[in-house]
Design brief:
Strand content: 15-25%
Radius of gyration: 18 Å
Distance between the termini: 15 Å
Length: 256
């Protein structure tokens, strides 16, 4: 019998096995702007204690996946300066172009700029904060927290929005490695994690949401998102705990 993670509503992956050849860990948006004091969430008045509480759990998960020889990917909202292709020619060539929050915010839609500052403080993407301009690439808050910092061999998917697939080369990277199963963790459960999971599901990937390896600004949003994943026999995938995933990794290594 193929090794699977104990998950709900089905043993994951659905067709097994839980193997580095077909499975990758995706750590989503564990950036200072979302996880650190003075970052985007904290500066706008959100309680980030649940997000910060993820870091020790994800350190264990990340270490175990690295030790098990699994591919690891990290995502980050925004990207570093690079030469950009014309979107028109990219589409003509069927290429995928990464975009992000440029310092002049020219890559941010007017709706998203309005939405991000539609709060009592008026603070939004691009506003000045203790870690630099919020969610703008190249600023201190843009980068991943040191405790979970990617190794050189771990690709960082820089994304302009909530999902890791839109306007990025993530799907290409996964398919080139033969990856078809994704373990998802990070922040926030109801926004970037959920969007990435839905995008992956529509592309045929079997997704596992690590329910205590993800967090939202409010527990009710986290819980509702996890429940939504499991509906309809696993409409978007399955959920499992950090302990369940670590146990499967332990069993895999003992078999080897």
């Amino acid at each position: 019998m193929s090794l699977q993670v104990k998950a709900a509503p089905y043993g994951w992956p659905h067709d097994g096995p839980f193997s580095p050849a077909t499975t990758a860990l995706v750590i989503i948006d564990m950036q200072r702007d979302f996880c650190s004091s003075g970052g985007y969430l904290d500066y706008r008045g959100y309680d980030i204690s649940a997000v910060q509480g993820l870091i020790p759990k994800l350190q264990k998960l990340l270490r175990a996946f690295r030790d098990g020889g699994f591919q690891v990917y990290h995502t980050r909202e925004g990207l570093e300066p690079r030469v950009m292709f014309s979107m028109f020619y990219a589409l003509m060539l069927k290429m995928t172009v990464s975009l992000g929050h440029r310092p002049d915010l020219s890559t941010l839609s007017t709706r998203e700029l309005f939405r991000s500052s539609n709060n009592a403080s008026g603070i939004g993407i691009g506003s000045n904060g203790p870690l630099g301009r919020l969610l703008v690439r190249g600023e201190r808050g843009h980068d991943i927290v040191q405790e979970l910092y990617p190794l050189e061999r771990e690709p960082v998917i820089d994304k302009p929005g909530k999902g890791a697939f839109a306007y990025t080369d993530f799907d290409l990277l996964l398919r080139n490695r033969g990856i078809r199963n994704l373990v998802l963790a990070g922040v926030t459960t109801d926004v970037s994690v959920s969007t990435t999971m839905r995008e992956a599901n529509d592309r045929g990937y079997d997704c596992l949401l690590v329910k205590d390896g993800a967090a939202a600004t409010e527990e009710i949003l986290h819980a509702a998102t996890c429940e939504g994943v499991r509906m309809g026999g696993g409409v978007f995938g399955a959920t499992a705990s950090v302990g369940d995933v670590l146990q499967a990794l332990k069993e895999k290594m003992s078999i080897e």
